[in-house]
């Protein structure tokens, strides 16, 4: 025990994380359009491989709801064999980025872009899984999923089987929501697991006509990508690989930052964590499994359960492996509407409802980026939606960085004094010129640039041209005081 002083705490925490992870691994796999066992494979790799590597000591990795939409689209477009290639390539890119120490730079991505990304994923996930709760087939695109919900509701209302399935899915969501209101002793069993167990019991007792998980067996589900799969890969898949890499990395590293705020232990080493995620995804790709990210739900459960070292997440991988090896047939008892309900609940947790209104009040630009990113993902697709959010973030930053203030002092006699402060860039050039050109043409002007932090070439050229025009009518030449870094002397334009 001296060698492992925290073994008891880590053992207990590992069981809690296992119980939280089990239904989520299966649910994410089914929602992604792949065999349920592949979700368990990713969870096992997240525990035994990524969990063992350095980076973030208490963060738990596995298949994430945040990648469900992207995986489903990739499988539909390229086929299941290509999924292994995509995940393998994404893992190798993560390893390279970690080796180049690019992990820390993910913290420079606007939080609004990441939250907008998760919100967009959540909206598409909710819409798609609402069809699944009723046992209906969902449309392909995100916008069609949302626009088709009223028609789906009408279809479900006319079918006894669909209504039965829908009620079971809704009951699953209700159990998960109400479970948190029970005494803490009852909450020792995670809400998602309790909801699945109750759904299994209700299906068996009332002989409900609902679909259940299709079981292929662990070894039967693992299909490493063969050479023929590599031969069928085209250039179009590159965008999907980049999207997998960026989204998985961003979600993992932002999750690490959130987990660090939950405990007082060692802080995350971002580059090492990125390499740990890369190693896990590389192996998942070789096995043809789902991609992995760090998952905040499992990670927070790990911390809350009292985990002290990485041993808890490694042991949770062991329990997943034992379950997949010894009790795989148990998966066939799980009703699909119950898993859909779990994913609907997970989708709602991806949408930052409580943050949007305060963000709008305090930082409207950031709130706009969040909303536009989410809407773009729903309306277009994941990759382009994130790119739109990143582009907006860059434009906003450039606009704010170019903030400039002009103060005009006119005492009625003598020269008019114009003071510029801040950052004078081409983005604010129209405003600067409008103010200067509105000054009386027959009065001398003193232009003081000493308060500027930055003056770009476009602004300098425009100011010189304005000064020349203002002095061309016989008015006393404009006197310019240069930037502070230049000698503070009067020069004549």
Automatic annotation (TrEMBL):
InterPro entries: SLC26A/SulP_dom, SLC26A/SulP_fam. This is MFS superfamily sulfate permease-like transporter. GO terms for biological process: transmembrane transport. Pfam families: Sulfate_transp. Residues 474-493 are annotated as: Disordered. GO terms for cellular component: membrane. Signal peptide: none annotated. The chain crosses the membrane at residues 12-31, 38-58, 78-100, 112-132, 152-179, 191-209, 229-248, 318-348, 368-395. It is a multi-pass membrane protein. PANTHER family: SULFATE TRANSPORTER (PTHR11814). Residues 7-373 form the SLC26A/SulP transporter domain. It is found in: Membrane. It comes from Streptomyces paradoxus. Keywords: Membrane, Transmembrane, Transmembrane helix.
């Amino acid at each position: 025990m001296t060698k492992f002083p925290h073994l008891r705490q880590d053992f207990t925490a590992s069981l809690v994380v296992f119980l939280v992870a089990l239904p989520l691994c299966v649910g994410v796999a089914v929602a992604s359009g792949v065999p349920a066992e592949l979700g368990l494979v990713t969870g096992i790799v997240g525990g035994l491989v990524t969990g063992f590597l350095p980076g973030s000591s208490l963060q738990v990795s596995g298949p994430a709801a945040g990648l469900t939409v992207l995986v489903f689209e990739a499988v539909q477009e390229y086929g299941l064999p290509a999924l292994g290639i995509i995940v393998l390539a994404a893992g190798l890119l993560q390893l390279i980025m970690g080796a180049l120490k690019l992990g820390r730079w993910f913290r420079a991505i606007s939080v609004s872009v990441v939250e907008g990304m998760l919100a967009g994923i959540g909206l598409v996930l909710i819409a798609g899984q609402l069809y699944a709760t009723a046992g209906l087939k969902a449309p392909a695109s995100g916008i069609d999923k949302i626009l088709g919900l009223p028609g789906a509701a009408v279809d479900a209302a006319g079918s006894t089987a669909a209504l039965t399935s829908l009620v079971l899915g809704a009951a699953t969501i209700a159990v998960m929501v109400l479970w948190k209101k029970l005494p803490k002793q009852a909450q020792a069993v995670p809400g998602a697991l309790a909801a699945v167990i109750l759904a299994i019991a209700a299906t068996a007792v009332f002989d409900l006509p609902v679909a259940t998980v299709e079981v292929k067996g662990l070894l039967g589900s693992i299909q490493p990508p063969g050479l023929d799969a590599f031969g069928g890969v085209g250039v179009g898949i590159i965008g999907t690989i980049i999207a997998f890499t960026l989204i998985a990395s961003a979600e993992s590293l932002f999750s690490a930052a959130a987990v660090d705020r939950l405990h007082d232990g060692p802080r995350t080493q971002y580059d090492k964590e990125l390499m740990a995620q890369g190693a896990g995804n590389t192996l998942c790709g070789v096995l043809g499994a789902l991609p992995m990210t760090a998952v905040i739900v499992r990670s927070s459960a790990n911390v809350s359960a009292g985990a002290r070292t990485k041993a808890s997440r490694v042991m949770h991988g062991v329990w997943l492996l034992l379950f997949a090896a010894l009790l795989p047939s148990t998966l066939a008892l799980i009703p699909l509407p119950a898993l859909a309900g779990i994913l609907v609940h997970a989708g709602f947790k991806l949408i930052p409802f409580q943050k949007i209104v305060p963000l709008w009040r305090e930082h409207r630009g950031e709130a706009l980026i969040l909303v536009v990113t989410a809407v773009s993902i729903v309306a277009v697709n994941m990759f382009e939606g994130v790119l739109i959010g990143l582009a907006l973030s860059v434009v906003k930053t450039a606009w704010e960085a170019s903030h400039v203030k002009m103060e005009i002092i006119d005492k009625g006699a003598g020269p008019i004094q114009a003071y510029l402060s801040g950052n004078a860039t081409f983005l604010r050039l129209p405003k600067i010129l409008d103010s200067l050109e509105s000054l009386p043409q027959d009065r001398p002007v003193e232009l003081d640039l000493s308060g500027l932090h930055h003056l770009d070439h476009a602004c300098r050229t425009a100011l010189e041209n304005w000064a020349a025009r203002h002095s061309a009518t016989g008015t006393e030449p404009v006197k310019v005081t240069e930037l502070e870094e230049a000698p503070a002397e009067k020069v004549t334009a």
